[in-house]
Amino acid sequence: MKTSFLKAGHTPSLIAAFLYFDVSFMVWVLMGPLAVQMAKDLHLDAAEKGLMVATPVLAGAVLRVVNGVAVDYLKPKLTGLICQAIVIAGLLAAWYFGIHSYGQTMLVGIVLGLAGASFAVALPLASRWYPPEHQGMALGIAGAGNSGTVFAALFAPSLAVAFGWTNVFGLVAIPLAIVLVAYSVLAKDSPECPPPKSLAAYFSVLKIGDAWWFMFFYSVTFGGFVGLASSLSIYFNDQYGLTPVTAGYCTAACVFAGSLVRPIGGAVADRIGGIRALSVMYMVATSAFAVVSFGLPAAWMALGVFVLGMLALGMGNGAVFQLVPQRFRREIGVMTGIVGMTGGLGGFYLASSLGYSKQLTGSYQTGFLVFAGLAFVALLGLTGVKRRWRTTWGAAGLSAARV
Asked: Which residues form the Major facilitator superfamily (MFS) profile domain (predicted)?
């Protein structure tokens, strides 16, 4: 890591942002790794399973906008403390009272969605400490907290076998409480936090076409990542007959690949430009989802293709947020919330559409092919705007970072 990067910002806050993001994402996708056992006990069909794992993703998408506004009013540190306390209380309630119906899974999913909204807290906490030329690295490190999804996939199925899946909701509250203490000590709000604006002023960014492009680009990269993190345990169990624990290990491998390379994606974008990096990643993702849609004959083959696709999506997440702060430096709080929201919506679409595709056609192919098509459309859109971006807000002399 470059010495200039270490001197540029506030390392304890960056660590706090990563830790908060990490454990929050762990519980955000918790229902995905537990879905096989939960669906069996609650007698859910394929569509209900898909919607169950997609509900936290949708709730997280909506709540990211709320957190994006709260961050500017309350500042990132206090917003994070409040949200984490609510999530811990919700997990303990689910553990104590239990989950006995499909409707109750929806209610728990909404609480878990607040953990997913941590995105709109952790990224501004880190971003506001760093200059434009280090945004890709800083947000890549903070955003690598999506590696928490690995822990959910890796340990939740085994803990469910050992202690029962209801008790897993209580167990995961323990690391959240520990991180809450560390976050309260390490996190510090940047002195450059912008003053709060009216709600109308916040959403005035929606009048800017570039905001919509970023929303769409992130709905594909992050949507693909979190959608797969929520759904792959179900897919490997249903498509290849793997046990819940083995399916969880396969999911963990895919998610680990995608989360590990997010900082690398940001660093690569800092070096070669976010547009160029993102273009390559969309091409790889399009190819990977198209191939896997045909139902490869062996689980290890599908695992290899999913890992490749997740590598592209993970690096794409870092590349998108190398670009966003350059275009919307003063509006980074609300832009993080809005762009993060559409990322969650993309994840909700993928997770739920895979379930409905299986329910209606008997195959996951349609769901994967449509998502591959969206990645290709994103590539075409990026190609269409890149010249304008490079000659306006990304022009030499206007930005110290590469676009």
From this structure: 12-390
